């Protein structure tokens, strides 16, 4: 369900908006969730739809790139933009803009190799870069470090328990009986692309069953427990990031008043 200010809304209130097909898919998922997704205003919702769409696009772009999967010990980067540190992470070189560093991963992907958590953070950065002005992005994310789940606090990444996930969220497939010789396959971080598909770096784009099947081939000998999708969701701080969006690019949602009925339960006002 979606709540804008004090109003619960349904899909009839968005019928006059020119959403893309991906945005329609995301909006449908938000509306169908039992959990209420609350927004202070229309701008916040529009921004989230756009950023989720860009996360999906960035994930697909990385999936089709030549960037390889590698554990930290064997990670690689374009040394024109990044300095590989002793942990296998990538530190932005002095004088290189964060936007240039992120874009190079996609433009010269054959020079890069990293593991799945770093890939998710890269996808998040790329998506945010697509929706903010480049100058704003560079100010927010100066001195970038790409290493595991290390990220700039301005991404406002949060992980919560529950199985209410929306296209553009990051999920985790856990492999409880992984082969100790290959600990990198103890699980897989994956972006939910919608329509039952997930992208995980090193595995590619697969269904839920495909992800689990792949991880099950990475289990220890005589393993009995299957890999599974954990009930947790990781997402960026959509509403926080929306405060940095270009005002002139924030389209207005035209709510259709024809079906609006205002109701009240206790002190809560809602539409149905």
UniProtKB/TrEMBL annotation:
Entry's EC annotation: 2.3.2.13
The keyword S-adenosyl-L-methionine is assigned to this record: no
Naturally occurring in which organism (per UniProt): [Anoxybacillus] calidus
Top-level taxonomic group: Bacteria
Keyword Transferase applies: yes
UniProt-listed GO biological process terms: sporulation resulting in formation of a cellular spore
Gene Ontology molecular function terms on file: protein-glutamine gamma-glutamyltransferase activity
NCBIfam families hit by this protein: PRK03187.1 (NF002869)
Entry keyword set: Acyltransferase, Sporulation, Transferase
HAMAP family named in the record: Tgl
Pfam families in the record: TGL
InterPro entries (alphabetical): Gln_gamma-glutamylTfrase_bac (IPR020916)
Designated name of the protein: Protein-glutamine gamma-glutamyltransferase
